[in-house]
Amino acid sequence: MEPAPGPQEKYQLITRNLQEVLGEDKLMAILKERELKIYWGTATTGKPHVAYFVPMSKIADFLKAGCEVTILFADLHAYLDNMKAPWELLELRTRYYEHIIKAMLESIGVPLEKLKFVRGTDYQLSKEYTLDMYRLSSMMTQHDAKKAGAEVVKQVEHPLLSGLLYPGLQALDEEYLKVDAQFGGVDQRKIFTFAEKYLPSLGYAKRVHLMNPMVPGLTGSKMSSSEEDSKIDLLDRKEDVKKKLKKAFCEPGNVENNGVLSFIKHVLFPLKSEFVVLREEKWGGNKTYTAYEALEKDFAEQVVHPGDLKNSVEVALNKLLDPIREKFNCPELKKLSSAAYPTPSKAKPGEKSTKNSEPEDVVPSRLDIRVGKVISVEKHPDADSLYVEKIDVGEAEPRTVVSGLVHFVPKEQLQDRLVVLLCNLKPQKMRGVESQGMVLCASSVGEPRQVEPLDPPAGCCAGERVYVEGYEGGEPDEELKPKKKVFEKLQADFCISEDCVAQWKQRNFLTKLGTVSCKSLKGGSIS
């Protein structure tokens, strides 16, 4: 029998692979006295996907360190977050989450008897909790509540009051679950600091906060339930897993925003303490890595090929998914899955649609705008005013894009240039060549007409997300439906500021490195 780990060993297990810890001294002080009590919460909204293995593997670390772990199924939060889970589906989705999360934990060998499972509505509707929520609402400002939820609560143009309550509930959960620490993604940081500010005002202790990094999805952006190609569903068939991994962004030698490498680092290595790259003998045969850093180094130096890496992840991932698929292959759970996540159906003549009849929010986060690098530029064979470009947007293959820039931008100025590309327009043929995106450009207001492609900040990588300030947390539509005219409605408020910065309603277009701009067309439009 192995000896129980000491406080320092427990600290290392608890904090490995985390991006940030708030309250390190308090964490160590608790570990010197007793076991840590910690909780992880998940709002029961969209279907959990393979990125959920990241917190699951950390929960395994917490248990190895002797922690008392509570898992919260935050059903009330799911409803408050812009009604991501409609009230009539809340119970069904919470049951689905309970079954799927437990199946995930079992698939990685976590003993369920060591965990405590709680639903938010088990205690959040009590008299005491409600009174504390009223007390908290009399202290917290609208500004602080909105800021706290900015990266977690869905951002819309006309936000509901419920979204402002969300951070307060999450802060109170720490007290009512009687824990020392809360664990979550780094996107929760503003809610964590909100809790640290306001809980002492109610006479409650400040807690420790542990934060995982955000794992890139298969497209290189955040893995999301609402972005189909960015994630692998836990119940996806093996052929779907293969298809999605084949399309995943995994550029040779590029270790930045690489969702395949990140999954190995944050899930497969912590679970097995090794990773085997499978390859044919003529390419050197299988190679076992016992340290992630060695694998990353070999990938960066192109010793490991993306195709071999993807194939190896596919095999390892299917081993994790097989027991989950098997568990959900029974009639009872199949029925629960379809009831909790019904397929929207079109209404028959004379019937009301089952879809929400409320008008859709037309917000910038619905646009999939990315940094692109122009790989090649050629004149369109059948149109003198059009270029046909190959543009790298961080996917397996560059996109073909047709642009009407011949009379405005010389070919040599486009070659190897970073541009801003709208990626979720419906592909359409332009004089016989299918265009898979739109290069966004600044245009002068008067005559003669001038056009300049928008410039991302220096240092950006192909595939990086471009977003509008204040709408960082939203997820884009998979494809913009032409009849809905979402882009056209938003474009009406696009403009270039007096500082040559691209804006929507006076909010800047941004990447993580800064503002998107143009060279000289102050006060221009964007098209």
From TrEMBL:
InterPro entries associated with the record: aa-tRNA-synth_Ic, NA-bd_OB-fold, Rossmann-like_a/b/a_fold, tRNA-bd_dom, Tyr-tRNA-ligase, Tyrosine-tRNA_ligase_regulator
PANTHER family in alphabetical order: TRNA-AMINOACYLATION COFACTOR ARC1 FAMILY MEMBER, TYROSINE--TRNA LIGASE, CYTOPLASMIC
Region span, Disordered: 339-363
Domain annotation TRNA-binding: ranges: 363-467
Source organism: Picathartes gymnocephalus (White-necked rockfowl)
Places the protein is found: Cytoplasm; Nucleus
A GO BP entry: tyrosyl-tRNA aminoacylation
UniProt keywords, alphabetically: Aminoacyl-tRNA synthetase, ATP-binding, Cytoplasm, Ligase, Nucleotide-binding, Nucleus, Protein biosynthesis, RNA-binding, tRNA-binding
Superkingdom assignment: Eukaryota
Name by which UniProt lists this protein: Tyrosine--tRNA ligase
